[in-house]
Design goal:
41% helix, binds zinc ion, two-stranded antiparallel ribbon
Amino acid sequence: MRILKYIIRKLIYTESTPKIRKTYIDERGYTRFKDSHKLVHRWVAEKKLGRKLMSNEVVHHKNRNKLDNRPENLVIYSSQFNHHMRHAVHKIITNRW
Ligand SMILES: [Zn+2]
């Protein structure tokens, strides 16, 4: 079961990471581009929105997998407060942040 989870995570990671640019996983578990150190999920969100993200905007991973940067897994919140509210509601429902 654990190995299956690992394979699924690996597959999702491979599928959702741009192949042309080299990436690495930072100390917080987020994918970044090797050349610019930009966070991949913010880059994908910008492509999805068709504009640059503002510094106050926060990108949330729907399935809580920080390595799953597929556009459909990303939600953009206008502030960290709104993002935290989303997690707070989720915590009430599921008891998980
Ligand atoms: Zn979040």
